[in-house]
Design goal:
The complex is a heterodimer of chains A (202) and B (491). With 202 residues, chain A is mainly α. Chain A has helices at 4-11, 18-38, 59-66, 76-80, 86-105, 117-136, 138-143, 145-150, 188-198. The longest helix of chain A is centred in the first third of the chain and has 21 residues, at 18-38. Chain B is mostly helical and 491 residues long. Helices cover 50% and strands 4% of the residues of chain B. A two-stranded antiparallel ribbon of chain B has the order 1-2. Chain B has a two-stranded antiparallel ribbon with strand order 3-4. A two-stranded antiparallel sheet of chain B has the order 5-6. In chain B, a hairpin with an 8-residue loop joins strand 3 (236-238) and strand 4 (247-249). In chain B, helix 17 (386-408) packs antiparallel against helix 19 (417-444). The longest helix of chain B has 38 residues, at 344-381. The chains are: A mainly alpha (202), B mainly alpha (491). At the A-B interface, helix 1, helix 2 and helix 3 of A face helix 2 and strand 8 of B.
């Protein structure tokens, strides 16, 4: 077991190397901060649906939600992360988010993205979280007993398959959707030079 | 344990191991960074096809090569088959439907011809064909200014960039006839380089500036209404902006309601025309669709024009915004039922119920206004003086303004039924107030009997009563369409 002071003693560079090592560590830290900035890492702590289209492959999901009635009342996180307690919320978010980020970075995304079992269960609980009073309302129970009888046994999305994204969700399903994707990482001055040199329109 | 520097001094190969490990870590961090940058750069292209469209391209077919689905749905605005109870995509002769309108607009070109418009595709054909633009030929000029082209064509952004804003509005309507050939289309709402929504007409930008609002700060959802609000709004021609120019202006400085726009016009003594029968200083409401939509429940819920009039539809495995703009009643499942999970018949019946009720009170106001105009004429004929009539004529002006505000916005009895009912009820109150004052005045002038109404049971009879020579007007128009328009199209 090495104590903190012992560890420092081990890794501490000799006095004449202090400045170069400091500079190198700053380069590493700078690279890390650049990663935080360019990946918009802080946005992942919030609930803005724009965060979910940091990865452009989520555009079909964003576009279909944006054209649905859920747009007015529910963000992505309202349905897709658990809300039973804040720890679970961020645990699930981190778990899902890291998997998504890995798949996206490795370019391993499938042409059609399907929700996984864990995600389905979270959505199911969230349907009930908002629509529970509707499902358990005695008047409506009498009218449509299927709802109360299936509560807890059948996932809402078994029947409500099109809510809210519709059933067509391939990466190519919304070719011209206007989605608030991140702006180009190329700075404007460079884009202008590229435009004048190549005559490109973008 | 000895310090690392000591260990490395003893085993130099360990220094190389540290070097390699650090190199690999930095290499992969760099790869990760470059991958993130790359994938962010992809986002710029992923949903914006690489197009080669000129920034002012007026030809919708050129855009259509890159956006076939959107373009083909746009072409469907040519369809004239759909009819709802009060509207639809066919041309409806509103003067025939309600001959009272001929009397209400006596002395103004709307009494000659007023059809409910067809789809965007027909914008140019329809403005050429209406009797309101006259029959310019040779030395005969159109009674309309070039300003009237503003909302008819995708050639307008190009012409404005060539001539400047006032330069485009200047001159009579026939002078730009050969230049304006493409109906309303892509460039009117879309930026060709990004395909994002943009505002191409100066009047909306100018109105925003006067209100101190920044059009750059509005959300995409608001833009999905504001691109429509470039045209589907109340407007007037301001003659005081530039010499001899009818400058298109939105009267929003005091607010969006019928009352605040009325106050705006009163404050500047604005008059569209003097009524041929009553001599009242009249206002003509255009189509305050956006203004009235704003006061409705759908606007308050964050619903934009495009949500219902341009719903998301799918074709095969692709989803896109339908550019077949028209009544949502044509496609209830893609528009209403996105939010309202009810039977189509029930939803349509709800719309018609609102429209029926408002149409009936609006029609009552129309009849009162006809009486007020005719009675005012009788008062003049009986020798009424100007100062005796002034207050009455002002009441007629306000009453008809309110009627027109409710009538000209065809969708408003659904968009904002409560506000439209309120506007009509204040109109009825003002019209009746005018008529009470008129009957007192007439009595004081010795005319105590009811003033007989002319026979206006048909559009033709009403037009004869106000002294229009429809036969000549139609013949001149036919000649214009046969001789002048083909020349325009050749150029």
């Amino acid at each position: 077991m090495v104590s903190t002071s012992g560890f420092l003693k081990v890794v501490k560079p000799p006095p004449q190397w202090k400045v170069p090592v400091l500079l190198l560590l700053a380069v590493l830290a700078g690279l890390f901060l650049f990663l935080v900035h360019i990946s918009r890492a802080p946005s992942y702590l919030g609930d803005d649906p724009k965060t979910c289209v940091n990865c452009h492959i989520m555009a079909p999901q964003y576009a279909t939600w944006q054209h649905s009635s859920h747009r007015e009342n529910a963000t992505c996180n309202d349905c897709h992360v658990p809300h039973n307690n804040i720890l679970n919320k961020y645990y699930f978010k981190a778990k899902d988010g890291l998997r998504h980020a890995t798949v996206f970075t490795l370019r391993a995304e499938p042409q059609v993205i399907f929700i996984r079992e864990a995600g389905k269960n979270v959505v199911w609980k969230n349907c009930i979280r908002c629509h529970g009073p509707l499902v358990t309302n005695p008047k409506l129970q009498a009218m449509r007993p299927l709802h109360i009888n299936s509560l807890g046994t059948r996932n809402c999305t078994e029947c409500h398959r099109h809510t809210p994204h519709g059933t067509v969700n391939s990466l190519a399903s919304v070719p011209n959707a206007r989605v608030p994707l991140p702006s180009s990482p190329v700075p404007a001055w460079l884009r202008n030079i590229m435009r004048t040199n190549t005559g490109a329109t973008q | 344990m000895k310090p690392i520097s000591e260990i490395i001094r003893q085993k130099p190969w360990l220094g190389w191991v540290f070097f390699l490990i650090t190199m690999v870590v930095v290499f992969f961090l760099g790869l990760l960074a470059s991958s993130i940058v790359e994938r962010r750069a992809e986002a710029v292209f992923a949903y914006t096809p690489a197009v080669d469209i000129d920034s002012l391209e007026p030809d919708n077919a050129v855009w259509g090569k890159y956006f076939p689905r959107e373009y083909h749905s746009y072409l469907q605005t040519a369809d004239t088959v759909f009819r709802s109870r009060y509207g639809g995509s066919a041309s409806i002769d509103m003067l025939k439907y309600a001959p009272e309108l001929v009397i209400l607009w006596a002395g103004y070109s709307f009494s000659k011809d007023y059809n409910q418009g067809r789809g965007h595709y027909h914008a140019i054909t329809d403005i050429r064909a209406t009797l309101r633009t006259g029959a310019p030929a040779g030395n005969v000029k159109s009674p309309s200014p070039n300003t009237c082209w503003t909302c008819k064509s995708s050639d307008v952004p190009r012409l404005i960039s060539e001539k400047g804003i006032a330069g485009f509005y200047a001159g009579t309507w026939e002078t730009l006839g050969p230049e304006v050939t493409h109906p309303i289309g892509c460039v009117d709402c879309h930026d060709p380089s990004t395909m994002n929504l943009h505002i191409s007409r100066p009047a909306l930008l100018e109105a925003f500036q006067r209100q101190g609002k920044d059009i750059g700060a509005v959300s995409l959802q608001e833009m999905r209404s504001l691109v429509c609000a470039q045209c589907h709004v109340e407007y007037y021609f301001n003659k005081h902006v530039a010499e001899g120019v009818q400058y298109l202006t939105f009267p929003w400085d005091k607010g969006f309601t019928a009352d605040s726009i009325e106050a705006y016009y009163d404050a500047m003594d604005f008059v569209d025309w003097e009524h041929a029968i009553s001599k009242a200083p009249m206002l003509k409401a255009q189509h305050p669709d956006y203004e009235l939509y704003l006061s409705g429940t759908h606007a308050k819920r964050g619903i934009s024009c495009a949500d219902c009039h341009m719903p998301y539809i799918s074709e095969g495995g692709q989803k896109f915004t339908s550019h077949h703009i028209g009544s949502p009643l044509r496609n209830v499942s893609s528009s209403c039922q996105v939010c309202h999970r009810e039977e189509t018949d029930k939803l349509v019946a709800d719309v018609y119920e609102r429209q029926d009720k408002i149409a009936s009170i609006r029609h009552q106001l129309e009849k009162l206004l006809v009486r007020a105009h005719v009675e005012a004429k009788a008062a003049w004929d009986a020798g009424a003086r100007k100062e005796q009539m002034q207050e009455i004529l002002q009441l007629i002006r306000h009453a008809q303004w309110r009627w027109d505000f409710a009538a000209a916005s065809h969708g408003a009895s659904f968009h904002a039924p409560l506000e439209v009912s309120r506007i009509i009820s204040t109109g009825i109150e003002k019209a009746q107030e005018a008529r009470i004052k008129l009957s007192r005045l007439l009595a004081s002038l010795g005319r105590n009997a009811e003033i007989p109404l002319p026979d206006i049971s048909s559009k033709e009879k009403a037009q004869i009563y106000i002294g229009l020579d429809m036969k000549t007007l139609r013949e001149e128009k036919a000649q214009f369409l046969q001789q002048v328009v083909p020349e325009w199209e050749k150029k």
